[in-house]
Amino acid sequence: MTKLSVNINKFATLRNARGGNMPDLLKVAQDCERFGAEGITVHPRPDQRHIRYQDVWDLKPLVTTEFNIEGYPSREFMELVLAVKPHQCTLVPDPPDAITSNTGWDTDKHQAFLKDVIGQLKKAGIRVSIFLNAQVDKVAGAKSAGADRIELYTGPYAEEYANAYTQPQNLQLFNDYKHTAREAVALGLELNAGHDLNLDNLRFFKLHIPQLKEVSIGHALVCDALYLGLENTIQLYKRQLMD
Ligand SMILES: CC(=O)[C@@H](O)[C@H](O)COP(=O)(O)O
Ligand SMILES: NCC(=O)COP(=O)(O)O
User: Fold this and answer.
1) Site (Transition state stabilizer): which residue positions (predicted)?
2) Residues with CB under 6 A from ligand 1
């Protein structure tokens, strides 16, 4: 079974646009769970342009499914995560000014740093996932740094899927995802995926990477919800994830 964690960043973007509390992020998270989400993901960025550090504190007692906090492990981020203690922390190598996440970790180059931060998170009882490109040679570094899971960065997959839409089975890049997933499982790592997954490309990914434990989806899901409604949209995404 693959769990759907709804990334609620973009609801916070909308709220912040007017400075008030509409939509109410806490209600959104609770409604996502009520509508079938099996996790809530947030990605507090240094400029707090969507998720604010206070949101993370406020969400913690309300989230009854899996709470996943994503981000670059800066000192401030680590202090927040270690204090809030979510179920899972996903480490992403984003520079402070990133518009959105656009690559995975080089687990060789940053091995010592990753080992240190993952050690701190694990000591606090937090499961750690690290964001990885579909690069089979970076998986061993995730394992030796102490990660429990990897999250496959699916941005390039989504782009290629859209381009090769008529014959997705010919996707060249997809073999790299398959090999990376296989290597992760062989080394005892669990598998997440995320970024730019949507109602078009999700089913193909799920069918070909059956080891997938969880996907986190935000941007496309929120866009779909504008047309289809949040409850219906969450159900449609869950349908794509059926075994
Ligand atoms: C790690 C990842 O892929 C997501 O967190 C994505 O970057 C969403 O962040 P934004 O909503 O800021 O684009
Ligand atoms: N980890 C990926 C995520 O949380 C959502 O990414 P996106 O669906 O907003 O691109």
Assistant:
1) 151
2) 7, 9, 43, 45, 70, 92, 100-101, 131, 194-195, 218
Q: Which of 47, 51, 91, 195 to mutate to test ligand 1, by most ligand atoms within 8 A of the CB atom? A: 195
Burial of residue 207 (CB within 10 Å: 0-12, 13-18, 19+) is exposed
In this predicted model, what pLDDT tens digit does every residue of 59-106 receive, in sequence order? 999 999 999 999 999 999 999 999 999 999 999 999 999 999 999 999
Give nearest CA residue, ligand 2 atom 6.
195
* Residue 218 is labelled as binding a ligand: yes
Question: What ipTM does this complex have?
Answer: 0.97
CA-CA distance, 123 to 49, in Å (whole number)?
30
- How far is 7 from 47, CA to CA, in rounded Å? 18
Output the CA angle 180-147-111, nearest 5 degrees: 85
**Is 195 marked active-site?**
yes
CATH number at residue 108: 3.20.20.70
For the chain, the domain total comes to: 1
- 163 among annotated binding-site residues: no
- With the most atoms of ligand 1 within 8 angstroms of its CB, the residue from 5, 9, 50 to mutate is 9
User: Which DSSP state fits 106?
Assistant: -
Judged by DSSP in three states, 216 sits in: strand
Look up the domain containing 113 and give its range. Answer: 3-240
For the Cβ of 196 lying below 6 angstroms from any atom of ligand 2, the answer is yes
